[in-house]
Amino acid sequence: MKQLLLTMMALLFLLAACGTDDLSNGDGGNQGNLDDQTGHQTNPNDHGGGQVIDQPEELTEEELLAMIDQLNYRTAVQPDIEQTIFTMELINTGDDTVELGFSSGQQFEIVVTNAETGEEVYRYSEGRAFTEAFVYKPVEPGQSLTWKEVWEYGNDIQPGTYNAEVTILASQINKQVIEGQPFVKQFSFEIPEEKERSAFHNVKVEGTAGKYKVTGEARVSEGGFMYHVEDGHNLLVEDTPVQVAEDADSSWSEFELDIEIPEEQLPVNGTLTLVLYEENKKEGKPGSQHHVTLEQIIQ
Fold this sequence. Notes:
Blueprint: H1 2-25, H2 61-69, E1 71-79, E2 83-92, E3 98-102, E4 108-114, E5 120-123, E6 135-139, E7 144-152, E8 160-168, E9 172-173, E10 176-177, E11 184-191, E12 200-208, E13 211-218, E14 224-230, E15 235-243, E16 253-260, E17 270-280, E18 285-298
Antiparallel strand pairs: 1-2, 1-18, 2-7, 3-6, 3-9, 4-5, 4-8, 8-11, 9-10, 12-13, 13-16, 14-15, 14-17, 17-18
């Protein structure tokens, strides 16, 4: 009997020793450990001392301002009779990649007011729903981010002068919060009047930065017309003939123009205007003209 009791006590001692050894060698589940000296969280799967997981270092105020300054913000507007096209571009002119953070799916805002009355006539975000998740957009050196919005108003907006405020709604740069709105442009533009008995109809413009595709319809005598491009001071594209259908004087004929202007000839601030006109061969001078805004460049 005494021997049996001694055997049972020995077994209990061995079981207790094994349990203590398992606890001392276990990884404590999936929780990470803390480094004894630094207090940083370590990689829980690294049992050889732990790899320290550091948070990104915050930029100084000077470094953050330098990041903002290396982003060149440009806007362009193309007003027409029934719609206006807004183009926004952020160009990274620096040597480092910049990551923009947006607090929602809305990445820009456009507000248009009547220049005479001050009445707000258009707000891009009105009536739209955006995701509430953060959105991140990296911009590599020498690359850019571009946004385009078409404001279609048909006959609801009267011709005249309007003021626009166009804002890129970035709230972070490289995961660091930026104060205020550093990317804002304010400018005025003209919505043109539709001229009666115009020889040109449904003229639309696509493109930016010196490369444009213009489509439309013409009703002109002798099946042809002329065009040139100017910026109010200089003639950027010389007078160029365009041939359309021979019966274009009695019906509308479609046309398409591909216009390229070298970057060094583009104005820093100004409006590129396409002038379409019929040539009055009897008098040797242009007939009625139709002006189309290719782009309003604001640096």
